[in-house]
Structure prediction request, 68 residues.
Amino acid sequence: MENLVKKLEEQISFLQHEIGQMSEELYLQQKEIKILKQEILNFNKRINELDSVTESNTIKNDQKPPHY
Prediction:
């Protein structure tokens, strides 16, 4: 009986350690996801800005010069 209790205590200790490691890894992944989401938002904003500039330049280039 004492052996069984000791074995169970060892397993509980091992599982607690594993849960701690998984919790830490999950925290780091969530932190990384947050950073990546912000980078995606920044890239989308920059793409939209570049599209606006390109569209305005295209419109200017498509207009006939005033002497026509």
In short: The mean pLDDT is 90. The longest helix spans residues 2-62. The chain has one helix and no strands. The CA atoms of residues 19 and 25 lie 10 Å apart.
